[in-house]
Amino acid sequence: MAPVGWRGPADFRTPEMAPMPSDLSAANVPSAPGLPGRSAPLDTTLVLVSPENIAFEYRLAGPAPRAVAFLIDLMLLVAVGGLTLLVASVISQGALLGFWLAGVFFLWWGGSAAVEVLANGQTPGKRALGIRVVSQDGLSINVSQSILRNFLRAIDLAPPFLPGLVSMVVTSRLQRFGDLAAGTIVVVDRAAMAAGPPRVDSGPNLVADLVPIGFTPSLALVEALASYVGRRRVLGPARRQEIAAIAGRRLTAAWGVPAAHDDDALLCAVYEQAIREPRR
Amino acid sequence: MTVEEMVAAHLAEWKELEADVAWLRRPSMNRRDPRRILDFSRRYRAACSDLALATAQRFPAETTGYLHQLVADAHSQLYRTESFGLVDWLQSLVLVVPRRIVTDPCFWIAMGVFWGLFLGAGAAAILRPSYAVDLVGAAKLAQVEEMYSKPPSSFGDDAQRSTMTGFYVMNNAGIGLRAFAGGILGGVGSLLILGSNALTLGAIFGHMFTSPQRANFVEFVTAHGPFELTAVVLSAAAGLRLGWALLDTRGWSRLESLRRTAPEALSTAGLATVLFILAAFIEGFVSPSTLPYRTKAAVAVGTAAILVVYLLLPLFMARVPAGRDAPDDA
Lengths: 280, 330
Prior knowledge:
The complex is a heterodimer. Chain A is mainly alpha-helical. In chain A, 47% of the residues lie in helices and 7% in strands. In chain A, α2 (97-118) crosses α4 (143-151), α8 (219-232) crosses α10 and α9 crosses α10. Chain A is elongated, with a radius of gyration of 26 Å. Chain B is mostly helical. Helix content of chain B is 77%, strand content 0%. In chain B, α11 packs antiparallel against α12 (254-286).
């Protein structure tokens, strides 16, 4: 599979490595590969093409959740270290201290790597934050990648500049040095998302009869309406009207009817009709 | 078919696929049954075509987003590569890694830098007593002299020896791994750590050679010297390899060159870590023991011979079949 969602020097691959499907190559789909008619997202998404000729997206995780995940892992490490030190000093009066020191060494340098390999790219901190390490070609990480990125954490955390943070900010896939060397990315896990189309959860729609019978919105409009309906629940009433008016006024003008007093409800009505409309 | 009907018709299959992915992600492989894996790959391909349909038909972002996540998760499980075989790994460690190290200029550069600075600083400390004081500091030198004012065999009981072994693992192998990691800054970090360690060690060696504690010092450092000093050099060599990959890209982009070289460098750093751990055990239990100096010297000669044979012998053996020593394409 060939990553095609970003442009940059890292894109270079040999032909035998990348059996790129000819009909999905970047040259044939000018906007965003695999997403016909959609402009390339101005976003932290990464588009990959699978051998099944399907382009799928990963959402990249930024420095903030990754820093929090790291702090959680660090606190766990300190807790484990403290508890074991307590136990070791109680039962053996210092004879086990050598094992403890060596154990701390292995935990610090290899603990995350071991957990990441066993738990599919997630340390406890990453699990808590809903993020995951995957290889930059979309596969699960392997042992060597995991060890590599955790060894190089030493340089990513080096004071005073935190080179890893700088690297995350300047690379297009938000990679720290360990990620660059290992060829890994950290992505957002959205396992909890709902599959169905968003629903309008308000009461009876009073402006629904403004919509002319037989009006069929374009697919682009339906898509825009769907993302509006999906997000309107986090907007206040005034802001809803302000945003909805942009499309609502145009619709009523095109239909030759007076402007609706509730543009938000108008858009919801158009949307409700559209998702019941059969797709060709 | 409306969006709602389409989602309702496929939702059960999608949830099945989600469950399959969760099942495959579980580390215990022994519960796998082939029929479910067949079902999983069929559901994955179905989800792929559902996603294609959903994007072409401009389904709501919720639905396409869900399908993107589902396909991505399933894809990472279907095409996962877990090629960690113990036999391959051991063969690589015995045949491929040493050949790669000795044919790598980075190793010889690290050797030259370390031994050049080490011997230079040692000679300077012997010739001019104030040199070691300026470089290492009077307090640190006094501490070292105090430590070797007694014979090494009086360095504490078994519990303290095991504690010191653990400390050597943590401290020395940690320095080695930092030297490796520092290499990603164009090799500069590795050279700095290697150089400063070579200078400090050289100055202390030179100073102790001219001090009255000389016999105790030599008796202590002999046994673990070969493994520990070689491990320092190997760590820095691994770091230099990382940094060099950024400069000499062999036709790849810089990042791609780094990514392809990193597994090779990692195996060298791993070897260095193993040597550090072995050296820590020798330093913890052999160097301070009551064994006669002749035995400790024999340990040093033996470990040095092991290193020479390990590193040089593969050069005279038949080459591994092509492809085996190709860089692990992670």
